[in-house]
Design a protein that fits this description.
alpha/beta; 7-stranded mixed beta sheet; 6 helices; 7 strands; about 25% strand; globular; binds 5-O-phosphono-beta-D-ribofuranosylamine
């Protein structure tokens, strides 16, 4: 297939990874980067025949050394975009400076509300009326980079956390491939 080479970084289940792999996108998923050797996303990548790099950051002396190794593997495959899909780690300067405005994350809340872990539960516990999903460029902070797209949903009366989580995932699974498609289509006009 023509199009850019992309990499996906994930640490867990990989439902977003799966929908991206299934989606009709003009790109090639050149690599899955995973920091957890037992993460279910690894088997999903195998199923799609997508190459996986499993690296444990604690085996490196520094975060920069870990990221240098990741960067080497990305460059080797001419990766031009990185999409985080449940990657539970902050991206450091080594990768950010190599990929300005080319590292994107999806987060299950309407940022800047509820950054960090368990965002769906944070919104649920706070009993907000509306929450949602954000896709944003990654910077050094936790879920703080410039927003690219958001989609909201109203929390229903008496709704359970399980139901809300499911509905948030459903939004993620339609929003993320759409945003990736849009970014790839406009990649030459994105100002860094
Ligand atoms: C998603 O909710 C995503 O927004 C967050 O981590 C979760 C990953 O889910 N960053 P999955 O592994 O893609 O199922």
């Amino acid at each position: 297939m023509a199009g850019s080479n992309i990499a996906i970084f994930a640490s867990g289940t990989g439902s977003n990874f799966e929908v991206i792999a299934h989606a009709d996108l003009d790109c090639n998923i050149a690599l899955l980067v995973c920091d957890k050797p037992n993460a279910p996303v690894i088997q999903k990548a195998e199923k799609f025949g997508i190459e996986t790099l499993v690296l444990e950051p604690k085996q490196f002396l520094t975060k920069a050394a870990y990221e240098e190794k990741v960067l080497f593997e990305l460059k080797k495959r001419q990766v031009s975009w990185v999409f985080l899909a449940g990657y539970m780690r902050l991206i450091g300067n080594t990768l950010l400076s190599a990929y300005p405005k080319r590292i994107v994350n999806i987060h299950p809340s309407l940022l800047p509300d509820f950054p960090g872990k368990d965002a769906v539960k944070q919104a649920f516990d706070r009993r907000v009326e509306t929450t949602g999903v954000t896709v944003h460029y990654v910077d050094l902070g936790m879920d703080t980079g410039p927003v690219i797209a958001q989609r909201s949903l109203d929390i229903e009366q008496e709704e359970s956390l399980e139901s809300l989580t499911e509905r948030i995932h459903a939004i993620e699974h339609s929003l993320y491939p759409d945003v990736i498609r849009m970014l790839l289509e406009h990649e030459d006009s994105i100002e860094v």
